[in-house]
Amino acid sequence: SFLxxxxxxxxxxxxxxxxxxxxxxxxxxxxxxxxxxxxxxTARHYHLEEHPMASNPYHNPxxxxxxxxCHVKDLxxxxxxxVDLGCGKALLIKEGGDFHAVGHKCPHYGAPLVKGVLSKGRxxxxxxxxxxNITTGDIEDxxxxxxxxxxxxxxxxxxxxxxxxxxxxxxxxxTKMMAKCISLSNYNLSSTNVLIIGAGAAGLVCAETLRQEGxxxxxxxxxxxxHLPYDRPKLSKSMDSHPEQIAxxxxxxxxxxxxxxxxxxxxxxxxxxxxxxxxxxxFKMEYNKLLIATGSTPKALSCKGxxxxxxxxxxxxEDANRVVKLAASKNVVIVGASFLGMEVAAYLSERAHSVxxxxxxxxxxxxxxxxxxxxxxxxxxxxxxxxxYMQTEVSELREQEGKLKEVVLKSGKVLRADVCVVxxxxxxxxxxxxQSGINIDSKGFIVVNxxxxxxxxxxxxxxxxxxxxxALRNNKKVNVPHWQMAHMHGxxxxxxxxxxxxxxxxxxxxxxxxxxxxxxxxGHGEGFDDVVIQGDxxxxxxxxxxxx
Length: 548
Prior knowledge:
It holds the Pfam family Pyr_redox_2. By secondary structure, the chain is α/β, with parallel strands linked by helices. Helix content is 16%, strand content 31%.
């Protein structure tokens, strides 16, 4: 909050998030509806009723706060300011002569948006690059699922006023209005309109986008995981997180919006002629539209002793939790200086007795960030007690009473090890599509166009398992296995299932966090031949530009 000139103020009004309107009732069945009609190739839709804005858009006058926040001349065009309304804060923005007010925190991880970037009617989060429309509050680039609450602003006698719902000020997030499944006839469990294989970010955003767009037919997601969709980047960044803590949506959300999730269900084959997915247990499900968003499978070690106990790929919350428990005051060996390997090393360095990292390359992140940045990061790790064994690999894992005891390197070095984490890359989880007729490249990636369509009509693919044309690199076919991109793929796929003709044009963005430092990377620098560095690499306060 700030001092105001006498008798001159600014007002902000907060519009109640739509999700609070009458608190969505459960679906007719009290859970995601299992009722299905025979697939007939057509999707039934209804449009969400337009809610005309009443003169007072709040159910409960006690929930409303109104405050003057500044003089109209206090903000220049292109400026943002965090303002306090007494029971919560809002972000006041002036652009093109108009004032706007939205939530001040990014709904993803709570970053202060006032430190972000305002450009062309959007504010971009300073931490992970999510982007919000300043007029509507809607999320327009990812990561994250929710939009910002939008608050009403009015100008009276050169003062700016904001009017807000106290609840919206406190939650700082808004779930977009969504459709539900309309009551379905011709009960048939083994058929759905939309089938989504995979329950990561791409699959979930696809399902949510369909509902946001008014799609009211059956949506089924299936996953090999035992959990509902969760925040996978946290598995290596905060390894002791429990599944409930990192769930992307609570169980009630899926019931409310009739998004069915089949857990521990693996698809073994897709029959494109009969539009059917065949599950490993023999169950078959017909679909009208299909999204394949199966992600990737971690590579295993191929050395002697690879089946020894206490050797892990970090694939699930249980894996991550178990590693943390086993590593306490013990010797940890990490194989692979990948993002996952380096994040795990950073996380365990304070908890384990020792952390050793084995890597074939000379410097970590050399291919992504170049030699100089890689060396600076390596130095930071070494000053935090992580020991590197570079330009070598594992030749044997030795056990004592079935449990890991030593890791033997090709260089001849023997490392004491109670637990080993393998982070040597991943391959696309697409082997079940080999005979399907869906186009897959030589590395196993599903080939899609800018609308996330495969070569088969009605079949879309998204996320880590695809190669797609990247607009900013002259439509070069690329694979970008990052969290933000998976969200956007899911959204574009959903819009094109509904025939909106939307093309993918987002800029790839990734982040990694280690020892309280984060590296944030925008663009696609594959094939760079020079790195221009501004700032101080030794202090890790720098910007690097990858050029060709």
